[in-house]
Amino acid sequence: MRFHYTAVVLAGLLATAQAADDIMPPTGLYRVERDSNFGPRRFPVGEHAQRGEERRATVCIPAQDGTAPVLPPTVPGASCQPVPGTITGDSLVLVAQCPLGRISNTIQRSDSTHWQITTEAAWGTPGKQPTKRGGGVSRWTRIADQCDSR
């Protein structure tokens, strides 16, 4: 399962790592449910995409050495440039400016076991108004303190 916002989250954490510790999901195993409209049609949580991609996943966030926990990298940084993140209350906003558009992620901690990540993107020809917009919401639920090492 691909999480297109992951590269933005990873890059943005470099600028806000210390304060992000209180907002980001800690090390552990998570159930992730998504609702997105990045493709030609909208797929509510639990429905399959046209290519049969499942909208639910189990994700492990491994322990880190002295830094904030990070989400698993699935998208290379490419040439997207992170904008310094901002923290307001229990929310962390991360933005990346890419050659073909802009990605914004808002990570919100609901309680000690639940997080919500809202992604918004606008893509198009560089220097022109965006021609495609998309977004999605991922709900993360912590189901174990440690990941299965198998």
Question: How would you describe this structure to a colleague?
Answer:
This protein has 150 residues and is mainly beta. It is built from 1 helix and 7 strands; from the N terminus they run αβββββββ. The protein has a 7-stranded antiparallel beta sheet, covered by helices on one side. It is globular. The two termini are 19 Å apart. Keywords: Signal.
Strand order of the largest sheet: 2-1-7-6-5-4-3
Number of strands: 7
Name the structural class: mainly beta
Radius of gyration: 15 Å
CATH architecture: Beta Barrel
Task: Report how far the terminal alpha carbons are from each other.
Answer: 19 Å
Helix share bin: 10-25%
Low-confidence segments, ≥5 residues, pLDDT <50?
1-8, 40-52, 67-77
Fold topology:
Elements: H1 6-20, E1 28-36, E2 56-61, E3 81-88, E4 91-98, E5 101-109, E6 114-123, E7 132-144
Antiparallel strand pairs: 1-2, 1-7, 3-4, 4-5, 5-6, 6-7
